[in-house]
Amino acid sequence: MTPKLILGPLLRYAGASDATIWVETDAPCAVEVSVGGPPHRSPTFAVEGHHYALVRLTGLEPASFYEYSVALDGEEVWPEPGRDFPPSVIKTTGSDGELVLAYGSCRVAVPHEPPYTLERGIVRRGGLGGQRFERDALFSMAHEMMDGPRESWPDALLMLGDQIYADEPSPGTLDFIRSRRDPNHPPGVADFEEYTRLYRDAWGNPTIRWLLSTVPSAMIFDDHDVHDDWNASKTWVETMRAKPWWEERIVGAFSSYWIYQHLGNLSPEELEADDLFHRVLNSDDATRVLREFAYKSDREVEGTRWSFHRDFGRVRLIVADSRAGRVLTPGKRSMLDEKEWDWVREKATGDFDHLLFGTSMPFLLSPGFHHLEAASEAICDGAFGRPAARFGEFMRQLVDLEHWSAFHASFTELASLLHSVASGECSDGVPPASVVVLSGDVHHGYLARATFGDGAHNPVYQAVGSPLRNPLGVPERLFMRAGWTGPVERFGRWLSRLSGVTEPPVSWRMVHSAPWFRNHISTIRLQGRQAVLKVEKTTPEDAGDPHLEGLLEKRLV
Fold it and tell me: How far apart are CA 511 and CA 448, in angstroms?
């Protein structure tokens, strides 16, 4: 029986002379990717009855376009017959000095049709079924790409968390869960098999499949990829580990994340040096290997790195894991363990035209909420006594007070590092023309410029892109706007000082009038030592075919 393509192909990595293509199939087979010469071939590996391959392509020419096809056991399965899409292509990086990076976060997997595409209502009702989420920014970007020349397409796509929603299963996954058990009881998505259905719903639409087959993608998880408020605090972790279903849930989350997201973040050279990857490839069935790795990843912070970096000519992208690697000991909280910090510092050292720092959670929140979160950490650590600490922990989980500002030592450490990079202390020559922190998570977008006081540095920005598809209702939008107002900032600063928190070593302000809340996608264009940020929102369902409209275009350098 001929193997079939279940999901993919996804173009995950594209360098100057190499690339990786990821696929999921319904049976073991040889996966072949052809770009005009002899096919590049890789056998599938098996995990819990599923079959995957990551095909590594080498010997490509820089700054070139390669149309490609995919065959399983010699029979071509991609491009799919009957689909009216442009050919899938690999665009290798070159020496023209330009990078166009699209990015965003927070994307629910619901159908691309009414009522799901209608404008978001004021009140959210339980579950994803029947809710209104407006049009998908990735779906709209794909339509614009198909109508434009290849030369205008993004060079890469960075997805900054919440690619899937494990606590609110998508309609297709929910139907699958109903066939196994009652979905009204915890834990939402329960195991590896149900996680695979979430990814199928997220990436299985034909238009999205074409987009991901053509634009190289890099990804990092956030809480909803695993569980709402994941690793918010030590108390949260202890509570979850006491639940009878948690172990299977977290093992399924990490195992599937490694396969569907993390593998494609690595370059061919990094894959060659990756011991776990080779152990998986050399196993007849890698289920046990991955389950043991996943369990250890949940229990041991040190030594498990999900962070990664990519170089695009003279632009370096560092993507830091701000979820799984947290140190949660009260009084010693840190977003990253010390080995991870050493890795980040190492990768931030060098001569670049631009440094992009990706982290799912914003480094710079609105000033009001920054101070409130900093105060909440001190209160949880006992600044006002034990009863207040218990209340602080309750509030920390209730309203998600667990961004960089709620890990004050880590906030200060990252601020110092970004200042050092922008001042030229981390380079042997000229410092980067810009340092831009790219983030998601908060379901609204904004661009803020940081000021360190001495003025002796090139620009440092926080650019938040969220959501791709999961807009806030009116009450939440008003709440988020309030964080940028003077009264909330003054109250937050007062409470922060009262709690004993030192002033942050950086100040910041939005460079535009107000945050944007519509589904949107952001694009940063870097050429030489110039940088331009463009933000585009989706159009309403009654505005014709899906496309994007401008929200902001700002020259950063």
Answer: 6
pLDDT in tens, 290-332: 999 999 999 887 766 899 999 999 999 999 999 998 999 999 9
Q: Dihedral of the CA atoms 188, 193, 198, 204 (nearest 10)?
A: -160
Count Cβ atoms within 10 A of the Cβ of residue 504 and give its class: 0-12 exposed, 13-18 middle, 19 or more buried: buried
For position 303, what pLDDT does the model report?
A: 61
**Angstrom distance (rounded) from CA 257 to CA 44:** 17
Cβ neighbours of 206 (radius 10 Å) = 12
- Beta-strand ranges (E) seen in 73-213 are 75-78, 89-91, 98-104, 156-160
Fill in the DSSP letter of residue 20: E
β 69-72/75-78 pair status? antiparallel
Q: How far apart are CA 519 and CA 121, in angstroms?
A: 14
Structure tokens at 500: 């004993």
pLDDT of residue 287: 98
pTM assigned to the model = 0.96
Reported as type and span, the H/E element at residue 238 is: helix 234-241
Residues composing the chain: 557
Nearest to 262 by CA among 26, 463, 52: 52
Give the whole-angstrom CA distance, residue 31 versus residue 359: 33
313 close to 328: Cβ distance less than 8 angstroms:
no
Q: What share of the chain is helix, strand, coil (3-state, %, to 5)?
A: 30, 25, 45
What the chain holds in terms of domains, given with CATH numbers, is: 1-95 (2.60.40), 96-555 (3.60.21.70)
Residue 352 burial (10 A CB sphere; 0-12, 13-18, 19+) = buried
370 has a pLDDT exceeding 80: yes
Inter-CA distances, 259 with 215, 240, 262, 348, 470, Å = 19, 24, 6, 27, 25
DSSP H or E run through 388? helix 386-398
* Helix H or strand E encompassing 489: helix 486-498
CA separation for the pair 223, 267 (Å, rounded): 25
